[in-house]
């Protein structure tokens, strides 16, 4: 039992060994683990001037690689040869269809989705859990089993998202037998599964690049969650279900949905004519006064901006320039004009840069993707990074178990 000397914060750790004294712990404490090094990884490096996946810089990957190539890089550890890529793509396509138990669950979730009791991230989390029961390798944490499971999850997550969208829209499920159209690449098939329409080349390309940008990001909250779970020698499906739970939150992956909701709220408050005017400054000033967190801005690690944000903003805006019709009542480029204005004000007034979730909101919106699917699509990409980290943790494991500083009541007698 710990030693008590008056104030709660001076109580030392229970359990002794390695706990350290209260003063040592106070000195080592960083709220939110800010600045704390939580482990080593060969998967990804975030630097202020670059983001690197296994030795390749993100601008290089976004411009020259496909999502399948990046998925191979992350999961198998090196750039694929043409033969390796063809083999990998065929393996993933062959795994796209869902087990009927998972499809039946998604079909049964329509009422919860319609009532708002469940959002797509919740249904995705449960569906991944069910996939664990149907996977012959579920309890095997060996490197080869982990790789097989990673490819299955990579293949099946877009199918879950697509089936869910069909249920939400009250349409027949698309691709029940094959998990989509086998001739379509991963990004294009994801869009096809959601809509039943083959996307344009531009739409498929923008989705593909967004998946590359979302694929991996070192020890972010959801990846760290997956590593903590894997560190107990639990299995990949359990770790991924936990990762989905962590990613859902608006301070993490959920920010791409919230960023778009915020832009819609601004338009509702100031009207279309207010875009480009001082009304946006006034709206933002009000948000600053009320200390509101503006979604899609800020980052724990990046101090001078998120490398991925500019890439997606440029790509999304370029595509928006080719689109006709209206999106939520506005031409596509108007959303980007508003986004750029909001970005400019954030930078000028708060010196806070957008993160990748900010342009993602506008980009997916002008691709007519329903907002509640933005974070599930993030999962469709991040499954590659999570699986790489889970395998890395299993391959060189030590239980992840930090300490805490006790702030509860001082020691007292139960019968005292
Ligand atoms: C990402 C995030 C959680 C990082 O948080 P953090 O490292 O703990 O930083 P803090 O929340 O402590 O922010 C530091 C300061 O910047 C401000 N700030 C940071 N992000 C902000 C935002 N998006 N809007 C308004 N102010 C913000 C904070 O209010 C705080 O100001 P203060 O020192 O005056 O209190 C935070 O920036 C955030 O909540 N962003 C919005 C959600 C989001 O886009 N998440 C996706 C991340 S990829």
Task: Describe the structure in your own words.
- The protein is mainly alpha-helical and 416 residues long.
- The protein has 3 domains: 32 residues, no CATH class; 200 residues, Orthogonal Bundle (Citrate Synthase, domain 1); 111 residues, Cytochrome P450-Terp, domain 2 (Cytochrome p450-Terp, domain 2, Orthogonal Bundle).
- It has a 3-stranded antiparallel beta sheet. Strands 4-5 form a two-stranded antiparallel sheet.
- The longest helix has 27 residues.
- The N terminus is likely disordered.
- It binds coenzyme A.
- The site of coenzyme A (COA) has 15 residues, from loops.
Secondary-structure topology with pairs:
Layout: H1 22-28, E1 44-47, E2 50-53, E3 56-57, H2 58-64, H3 67-76, H4 82-94, H5 100-108, H6 110-115, H7 120-134, H8 143-169, H9 186-195, H10 201-214, H11 221-230, H12 236-248, H13 255-270, H14 278-289, H15 307-320, E4 326-327, E5 330-331, H16 332-350, H17 357-365, H18 374-395
Antiparallel strand pairs: 1-2, 2-3, 4-5
Helix pairs in contact: 2-10, 3-18, 4-8, 5-7, 5-8, 7-8, 7-12, 8-9, 8-18, 9-10, 10-15, 10-18, 11-12, 11-18, 12-18, 13-17, 15-17
Task: Give the tags.
416 residues; mainly alpha; Citrate Synthase, domain 1; Cytochrome p450-Terp, domain 2; 3-stranded antiparallel beta sheet; two-stranded antiparallel ribbon; 18 helices; globular; disordered N terminus; binds coenzyme A
Under CATH, the homologous superfamily of the largest domain reads Citrate Synthase, domain 1
Specify the structural class. Answer: mainly alpha
Low-confidence stretches: 1-18
State the domain count. Answer: 3
Numbering strands along the chain, what is their spatial order in the largest sheet?
1-2-3
Radius of gyration computed on alpha carbons: 23 Å
Give the SSE string: HEEEHHHHHHHHHHHHHHEEHHH
Biggest beta sheet summary: 3 strands, antiparallel
Attached small molecules:
coenzyme A
In helices, the fraction of residues equals: 55-70%
Q: Could you give the count of β-strands?
A: 5
Q: How far is the first residue's CA from the last residue's CA?
A: 17 Å
- Arithmetic mean of pLDDT: 94
């Amino acid at each position: 039992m710990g030693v008590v000397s008056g104030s709660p914060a001076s109580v030392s750790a229970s359990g002794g060994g390695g706990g350290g004294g209260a003063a040592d712990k106070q000195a080592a404490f960083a709220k939110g683990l800010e600045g704390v090094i939580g482990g080593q990884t060969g998967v990804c490096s975030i630097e202020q001037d670059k983001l690197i996946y296994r030795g390749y810089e993100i601008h290089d990957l976004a411009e020259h690689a496909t999502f399948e190539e990046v998925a191979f890089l992350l999961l198998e550890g090196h750039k694929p040869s043409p033969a390796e890529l063809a083999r990998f793509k065929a393996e993933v396509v062959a795994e796209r269809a869902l087990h009927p138990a998972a499809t039946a669950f998604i079909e049964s979730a329509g009422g919860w989705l319609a009532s708002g009791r469940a959002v797509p991230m919740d249904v995705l989390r449960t569906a991944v859990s069910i996939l664990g029961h149907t996977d012959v390798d579920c309890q095997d944490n060996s490197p080869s089993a982990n790789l097989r499971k990673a490819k299955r999850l990579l293949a099946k997550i877009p199918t879950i998202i697509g089936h869910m969208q069909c249920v939400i829209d009250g349409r027949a499920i698309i691709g029940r037998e094959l998990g989509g159209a086998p001739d379509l690449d991963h990004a294009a098939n994801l869009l096809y599964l959601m809509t039943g329409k083959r996307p344009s080349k531009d739409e498929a390309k923008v989705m593909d690049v967004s998946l590359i940008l979302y694929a991996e990001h070192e020890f972010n909250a959801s990846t760290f969650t997956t590593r903590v779970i894997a560190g107990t020698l639990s299995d990949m499906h359990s770790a991924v279900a936990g990762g989905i739970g962590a990613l859902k939150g608006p301070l993490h992956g959920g920010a791409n949905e919230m960023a778009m909701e915020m832009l819609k709220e601004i338009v509702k408050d100031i009207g279309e004519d207010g875009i480009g005017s001082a009304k946006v400054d006034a709206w933002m000033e009000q948000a600053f006064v009320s200390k509101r967190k503006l979604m899609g801005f800020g980052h724990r690690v990046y101090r001078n901006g998120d490398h991925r944000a500019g890439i997606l903003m440029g790509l999304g805006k370029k595509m928006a320039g080719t689109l006709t019709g209206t999106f939520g009542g506005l031409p596509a480029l108007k959303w980007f004009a508003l986004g750029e204005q909001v970005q400019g004000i954030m930078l000028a007034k708060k010196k806070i840069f957008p993160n990748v979730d900010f342009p993602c909101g506008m980009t997916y919106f002008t691709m007519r993707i329903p907002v509640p699917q933005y974070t599930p699509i993030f999962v469709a990409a991040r499954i590659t990074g999570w699986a790489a980290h889970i395998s890395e943790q299993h391959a060189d494991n030590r239980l992840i178990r930090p300490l805490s500083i006790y702030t509860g009541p001082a020691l007292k007698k139960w019968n005292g």
